[in-house]
Amino acid sequence: MTAQMTARPAGKHAERYRRTEQALWRHHGIEPPVERFVDLASPNGRVRVLDVGAGEPLLLVHGTVGPGGWASLVAALPDHRCLVLDRPGWGGSTPVDFSRAPYGETVSEVVRGVLDALDLDRVAVVGGSIGNVWALRTAQRHPARVRRVVLLGGSPLVPGVPVPGFIRLVASPIGAAMVRLPTSPDRIRSILEDSGHGPSVADGRIPREFLEWRATASGSGAMRHERRMIRAILRGRSFRPGLTFTDAELSGLRTPTLCVFGTADATGSVDLWRRAMAALPAGELVVAEGAGHMPWFDDVDLVATAVRGFLAG
Q1: CA 46, CA 33: separation in Å to the nearest integer?
Q2: Cα(260)–Cα(155) distance, rounded to whole angstroms?
Q3: How far apart are CA 137 and CA 213, in angstroms?
Q4: Is the pTM of the predicted complex or chain greater than 0.90?
Q5: What is the 3-state secondary structure (H, E, C) of 33-98?
Q6: pLDDT of the residue at 63
Q7: CA distances from 5 to 35, 61, 138, 289 (A)
Q8: Where are the domains of the chain?
């Protein structure tokens, strides 16, 4: 696969999306990141990468929370060059068809193309939710390119992880209409509460700027593309075979891997993620008490400290 970095603009982003995105970054003390655009040959498409800071490079791959969800964690990692990938269909990235090839193959090729285009031989990859699959599949398929892996929150990495109710709803026939309707900050607040972040919503740890950006992102078409991806990885009420890792696959992964799991995250359990990390030759688990599906939303200091210590190891 070949890829190149281009300087073309990010397409037809609504002005409001860009304005709310910039307001979110500024809320966390970060001027709007440098935008980089990568043309991919396989899968064919273009992805946007937001480039923040200097130092050891980290590639961050988001879940359904969206790329803006990384802003608070990026602000807490000032000694790193944080490269925030807009997954296909989000922000300035074009959608891809996830049904054309195995999911792990597609996502690892996207990541490899980004690393090639940015002239990065080897990086640490940080995933959140479904982004965890992107991080670990890349480490599996391209181990020379991934120095370390950080997994934040539960995700479909191992059998037994339940499909979150919101994800099942998005995949359902009702979801087809839902993802086309305007989404309010109040609706985003409700989704976050259901994801284990109620206390952080109530006390302002999740700021208004995030709620406004995420509501705007929902109206930009991102969730329509996200629904197509979700339907490609689900079969009924379960994840499709081949999405999760077998015991043999986990035991063959030599890349040092950290998982931070919040006790209020309904995606699995502490015991499940402890067993999953134990199956890895170099896996470790940090438990964030009371944290939800995106644990850094609730305790960014704990997560950032764990990530910095792990990357320095």
Answers
A1: 18
A2: 11
A3: 29
A4: yes
A5: CEEEEEEECCCCEEEEEEEECCCEEEEEECCCCCHHHHHHHHHCCCCEEEEEECCCCCCCCCCCCC
A6: 96
A7: 11, 18, 20, 41
A8: 3-312
Task: List the structure tokens of 80.
Answer: 């790193």
Are the C-beta atoms of residues 261 and 296 closer than 8 Å to each other?
no
Q: In whole angstroms, what is the distance from residue 19 CA to residue 250 CA? A: 42
3-class DSSP assignment, residue 20: helix
Q: What averages of pLDDT result for each successive group of 10 residues across the chain (313 residues)? A: 44 75 97 95 94 97 97 97 97 92 96 97 97 97 98 92 91 91 91 96 96 89 93 91 92 97 95 96 97 98 98 92
Place of tokens 């969206």: 66
- Single-letter code of the amino acid located at 184: S
Q: Judging by beta carbons within 10 Å of its beta carbon (0-12, 13-18, 19+), is residue 244 exposed, middle or buried?
A: buried
For β-strands 146-152 and 238-239, DSSP reports them as unpaired
200 within 8 A of 297, measured Cβ to Cβ: yes
| Both tokens assigned to 149 | 């892996």
Q: Note the pLDDT of residue 1.
A: 41
Counted residue by residue, the chain has a size of 313
CATH class held by domain 3-312:
alpha beta
C-alpha dihedral sign at 208, 214, 215, 220? positive
Q: Are 82 and 52 a contacting pair, CB within 8 Å?
A: yes
Contact 40, 1 (CB under 8 A): yes
Question: 2: Cβ–Cβ under 8 A, 6 or more apart, which residues?
Answer: 41, 113, 116
Q: How confident is the model at residue 13, as a pLDDT?
A: 53
